Every structure is written in C-alpha cells, then in structure tokens.
Amino acid sequence: MLSRVDETVADNAAARLHAFIADGNYGAGDRLPPERQLIELLGMGRGTLRRALKQLERDGLIWRHVGKGTFVARRHGGCGDLLANLARQMTPVRMMRARLCIEPAIAREAAINASREATAKIDIAVKRARAAASWAEYERQDDFFHRAVAEATDNLLLIGLFETLNRVQREVAWSAVERSTPRPPPDHSSFAEHATVARAIAAHDTEAAFQGMRAHLGSVSARLFGDA
C-alpha cells in the first residue's frame, strides 16, 4: 500500500505524463514512446513512471497492449470538448489576463510548499531556458519552468488548474510573433525574471514569489500586447 507521500508522487507523475501527452499533440490511437524514452523525457524513475501509466490507464486516458506498446485512448466528449470550446472564445489578451490572475497566486503557494527537489527542478528550467539555442526551445523550457512552479505547490488542484490554463493557452489563436534574432538575446528580460521567481520560491518568500511572477507575466504581456 502506498504511503501518502508515495501517492502524491504518483499523482504528480500522472499529471506530468498527462501534460506530456497533451503537449506532444498525441491523438487517439497514437503510440507513446517506449518506457526508457519516457523515463529520460520526463525525468522520473521506472517505478514512478509505471505508477503514472497505471493511473492514466485507470482513468481511461491510455490503453496498453503487451508487445505493442502504450496508446492514447479515444475520448468521448467531456472535458476536452469543453476546453476546446473555451479556447475558441478566448483572445490572447484575455488569456494573458487570466494568467496574471492565477499564476502569481500559484507562485506564492509554491513558496510555501516547495521541497528541495521542486526548487532544483525550477532551477534546471531557469538554466535551460537561458541556454536555449532557438526560440522554439526557449518556449518549451519556459513552459517547463511555469509547470515546475505549479508542481512545487504540491497541490493537485492547483496543478490541475495550471494544466487546464495551459491547455487552453495552447489552443488560443496567437498571432505570429516576429523575432529579430534566431534565439533569445543574452539580455532577454525573462531570464532575470525567471531567476527572481526561482530565488523567491527557494527562500520561501511568498510575497516576493507572488510579485516576481506578476512582474514576469506583466513584462511578457507588455512585450506582446503593449498596454492592452
């Protein structure tokens, strides 16, 4: 029988695996990468991954065929349709305003509950974003940073809320953002902003974490939309 800590680890792993499937645009019937590759991609142990796979299988999100692999299950309406409909009605500006309302509070909660493992994961995301060799890679690492902050709350409801927000954001019709460089410049403002949030969470400084995330998202909003 799993302890409460083990159950939390398993639930968080399942949320990460679910997010990986959504981020990778895997559709019904698509086969997921083999276990050894998922272990590397998700940064979790074999036992943790297998518990996550079992949980998603119980939830009807995947199915497994011995000798063939793990596949994404067909969804029948429900939450997916609701999120798709919500995304169609959402503008990029309103999407950013929603993030400004929610993510600073998530960062504050992360500052209360973050473990050493969680803060280390946030630090890795900060470094990977700074080292990104392209804008596409930077955006992946930026997403990893924000997800790591949410996971640091150790609160499944807040993690689920972040994932819902993130899924809607991916579906919103963003206007093409013109880039003047092939990769983020060394003085890209988000680098320092990420580091500020990471330090605040590691120091368990709730107000600094809240204000740091709010300043970061405000900076992104101003860069994309001006004063909208």
Automatic annotation (TrEMBL):
List the Gene3D superfamilies hit by this protein, alphabetically: GntR ligand-binding domain-like, Winged helix-like DNA-binding domain superfamily/Winged helix DNA-binding domain
One Pfam family this sequence matches: GntR
Q: Mind telling me which residue stretches traverse the membrane in this protein? A: none
Keywords (alphabetical) are: DNA-binding, Transcription, Transcription regulation
The protein's GO terms of the molecular function aspect are: DNA binding; DNA-binding transcription factor activity
- Record carries keyword Acyltransferase: no
As recorded in UniProt, coiled-coil segments are none
Positions of the HTH gntR-type domain: 7-75
Q: What InterPro entries does the database record attribute to this sequence? A: GntR_C (IPR011711), TF_FadR/GntR_C (IPR008920), Tscrpt_reg_HTH_GntR (IPR000524), WH-like_DNA-bd_sf (IPR036388), WH_DNA-bd_sf (IPR036390)
Asked if the record carries the keyword Transcription, the reply is: yes
> Under which name does UniProt file this protein?
DNA-binding transcriptional regulator, FadR family
